[in-house]
């Protein structure tokens, strides 16, 4: 927030607000994707025995 306030001193406020929204969504999206990837990796390790099922 301090960085946004500093940026608003030198740039138009509407640009700072828009940039803050974009950066906030990128960070939140990155955190959510990381959580999903960690969950998938944990599931892969736990369900590894299912890969060795033979057909027939």
Describe this structure in words.
With 56 residues, the chain is mainly alpha-helical. 77% of the residues lie in helices and 0% in strands. The chain is built from 2 helices and no strands. It has helices at residues 2-10, 13-46. The longest helix has 34 residues, at 13-46. The termini are far apart. The model has no long low-confidence stretch (mean pLDDT 81).
What structural category characterises the helix and strand content?
A: mainly alpha
Mass-distribution shape: rod-shaped
Helix content estimate: over 70%
Q: On the 0-100 scale, what is the average pLDDT? A: 81
The overall strand count is 0
Strand content: under 5%
Q: End-to-end distance, in Å? A: 62 Å
Largest sheet: none
Question: What value does the Rg take, in angstroms?
Answer: 22 Å
How are the SSEs ordered, and which strands pair?
Layout: H1 2-10, H2 13-46
What's the gist of this structure?
This protein has helices at about 1-10, 15-45. With about 55 residues, it is mainly α. The chain starts with a helix and ends in a 10-residue tail after the last helix.
Key structural traits:
56 residues; mainly alpha
